[in-house]
Amino acid sequence: MNDLWDAAIVVHGGGPTAVLNASLVGLIDACRASNRIRRLYGARGGAHGLLTNDWLDLSALPSSLLAEIRRAPGSVLGSSRKPFDHTHLGPAIARCRDQGVGAIFFTGGNGTMKTAYLAHQSGELLVAGVPKTVDNDLLGTHHCPGFGSAARFYAQAVRDIGADNRALPSPVTIVEVIGRNAGWVVGATALARSRPDDAPHLIYLPECPPALDQICADVQAVYARLGRVVVAVCEGLRDPQGRPFGADLDRAGDQRHELPSNLAHTLARAISQATGLRVRSEKPGLLGRSCSFAVSAADAQASYRCGFDAVQAVERGESGVMIGLTETGDTATVPLARVAGFERLVPREWIAPGGNNVTLEFLRYAAPLAGAIDPWPTL
Fold first, then answer.
1. In Å, what is the CA distance from 110 to each residue of 107, 116, 339?
2. What is the CA radius of gyration of the chain?
3. Is 305 helix (H, G, I), strand (E, B) or coil?
4. Cα separation of 368 and 370, whole Å?
5. C-beta of residue 109 within 8 angstroms of C-beta of residue 147
6. What angle do CA 140, 146, 151 make, to 5 degrees?
């Protein structure tokens, strides 16, 4: 690539998180400290802004505003799920050349890292990926920025639903948890427990598909013991035949984005019909990935660190890499070829043999990322 460049651009992709903007501020701070990158642009609306020349100069934002942006949920630049393929690459590279841009940062999940890898393969730009997804399903990193805060939100939500359920048994509540094909967030609801009878009493992950009969039998067993049941299910849960228990499918036929749109409600009706119990459903939905008052401090710091270190990787001349996090919170570069298009699921050995809970190993993994979930008192 041409060495005569002094600018870079950042592109956000996919669903935002409660800590995505911390990565953006990390990028901005590192560029300000750089001797190579004098200007940092942001593409408004993700890939759409990149392709339509809707760029914002981030270089002169005041420090007071950056401090607020670092704590803000969502994406102050905007994001996009717009497909990006070889036909888009030429115009995007030409625009970058015109503006003296020699490096591009892609912040996102699996789809975004595929886009980053495509851009890297052109050989025209230095490319670095900044991980971001509440689903926690990226390879090459111990965890993903966004996951810890989503895990914290849902653990606190299920803790509080459990307190309500204990006070006035429903008797059965189904809580639908974000996560698509990966059960990392729904598994983290187990952090809500401090006593043996605390919610959630049952947890179902898409990595271990249960039959409806199994769920009903599990619910009846817990109800016979406690007189109340809180069940946490991942939004992408299917039965062993791959069916969503009769739930409607959003974007049916789209292998990447197909998702049941009313799983908890559908399951609640099916369980009620099969068992005769009264069952209700709850679906926090997008609140779980965007909730600013449930941010994990460790998650926010990791997000900032990934943005900052992505700039340092590019300054070293690295390209075609993603910034990965280690168990200790340090970072390391990972080839995008090992990340793009792959999916990291919960290991089967971290799911209880009965398929309705997680193991102690899972809790040891998730607890430091979500932070302490304090219990409520009982009499």
1. 10, 10, 7
2. 22
3. helix
4. 6
5. no
6. 105
Please, are residues 295 and 189 in contact by the beta-carbon 8 Å criterion?
no
**130-144 residue pLDDT tens:** 999 999 999 999 999
> With left for phi above 0 and alpha for psi between -120 and 50, is residue 180 left, alpha or beta?
left
Same domain, yes or no: 356 and 330: no
This prediction has a pTM of 0.96
Write the DSSP string, 50-78: HHTT-EEE-TT--HHHHHHHHH--B-SS-
Which SS3 state, helix, strand or coil, does residue 184 take?
helix
Angstrom distance (rounded) from CA 207 to CA 323: 26
Contact call for residues 152 and 17 (beta carbons, < 8 A)? no
Question: Which residue in this structure is represented by tokens 């200007």?
Answer: 39
Residue 253 pLDDT grade (very low, low, confident, very high; cuts 50, 70, 90): low
Which residue carries 């060495």 as its tokens? 3
Asked if residue 209 and residue 91 are part of one domain, the reply reads no
Query: Structurally, how many domains does the chain consist of?
Result: 2
pLDDT at 255 over 80: no
Same domain, 91 and 20: yes
- Amino acid identity at 239: D
Beta bridge partners of 173: 230, 280
Q: Which residues are catalytic?
A: 135
